[in-house]
Amino acid sequence: MNEATDLLSRKLDALLTGQAEAATRLDGIEDALRSVVATVAGLVPILGTHREMLQRILEAAAAEDAGGSELAEALRQVEAALTAMTDAQARTTQALSGLPEAVEEAAARGARQAMSREPAR
């Protein structure tokens, strides 16, 4: 009976140690994730403003030279690049929204693995 108690005690110790380490890592990940989400969210209005500004410049340049100047073409390319950046940012924001659940699942998986390990003797 003493051996079973010792084994259970070692498993519980390993589990608690693993949980403490996981909690510390999760706190760091959570802080980093908040920073990333805030930064990415801050890009949305900036990209929108740049896109609107370039659209107005493009319209003005196109009105000046209906024949298709190099400036108008360059601005079209910049506008296309900004559109691609805006789309990529939207996809990034969507992907980041699923991270908290992914982190939680990873922590639970780590706890299950720690519980199933045989402690060293």
TrEMBL record:
- Compositionally biased intervals (Low complexity): 108-121
What is the official name of this protein in its record?
Uncharacterized protein
Which superkingdom does the taxonomy of this entry point to?
Bacteria
Positions of region (Disordered): 96-121
